[in-house]
């Protein structure tokens, strides 16, 4: 069993980004700048946002966090985004999800300028990504690709099973791994909550690579995978004890794996690193 160490990979990517930023700053340019919008006080979002802001500073970026109350209206949020779209001193903006019920998240995402959509959630970026064109790629999916690349895990020609069809993870990773990208050319099966259990087991048991993003602790058990599988655990679940665990029953399943991501220290770290790659690209586009 080998660990796909997201911390090690992310640290190496961030060190490379910081070096590039230092060169730009030495040449007299301003630093890259990320704006983060956080609505309300959803505890996991607080922790993700904190990690994004800290990583901005490790990357040599400026950042600012705009906090809005849980009761903010969609109209107010859209007005703020319109302002940020016009602000030349910020390169990328993220609106941390989930948003409160009175706000339609897709309308908010659609309002972000595609040039500043470092999450890669805007239909323009998502569409371009799906078509294999240059785009900001959704950070978690992109981070998984970078992690597989860092550890030279073969992807092309292999059978990859994705569990979970969310717009931010399952859907984009299944498209990216099946596309003719640098990390791609896999044969991908996308399964989800409506996939019959027997069919799910048939697929996971013959998969070379399983990517699970369902948000259920211990969802993947040893009987579900074959010996030598590569297992990518996207879940970040907080148990009542406060312990953070993924979607894989790690201790029981890890001995069967050729490669496995830990939680924490796996995909979560890579999501933030990929966001930094996208922010640097947004910044560089501004100075091209
Ligand atoms: N909430 C959970 N994951 C993400 C993400 O990657 N981006 C944003 N904006 N919100 C999230």
UniProtKB/TrEMBL annotation:
Keyword vocabulary terms for this entry: Amino-acid biosynthesis, Histidine biosynthesis, Hydrolase, Methionine biosynthesis, Multifunctional enzyme, NADP, One-carbon metabolism, Oxidoreductase, Purine biosynthesis
Catalytically driven reaction(s): (6R)-5,10-methenyltetrahydrofolate + H2O = (6R)-10-formyltetrahydrofolate + H(+); (6R)-5,10-methylene-5,6,7,8-tetrahydrofolate + NADP(+) = (6R)-5,10-methenyltetrahydrofolate + NADPH
Domain Tetrahydrofolate dehydrogenase/cyclohydrolase catalytic, first and last residues per copy: 4-119
Pfam families: THF_DHG_CYH (PF00763), THF_DHG_CYH_C (PF02882)
Keyword Disulfide bond: no
Binding site for NADP(+): 164-166, 193, 236
Enzyme Commission number(s) of this protein: 1.5.1.5, 3.5.4.9
Biochemical pathway: One-carbon metabolism; tetrahydrofolate interconversion
Domain Tetrahydrofolate dehydrogenase/cyclohydrolase NAD(P)-binding positions: 138-285
PROSITE patterns attached to this UniProt entry: THF_DHG_CYH_1
Quaternary structure and partners: Homodimer.
Protein family according to the UniProt entry: Belongs to the tetrahydrofolate dehydrogenase/cyclohydrolase family.
Function: Catalyzes the oxidation of 5,10-methylenetetrahydrofolate to 5,10-methenyltetrahydrofolate and then the hydrolysis of 5,10-methenyltetrahydrofolate to 10-formyltetrahydrofolate.
Name of the featured protein: Bifunctional protein FolD
Organism: Geomonas diazotrophica
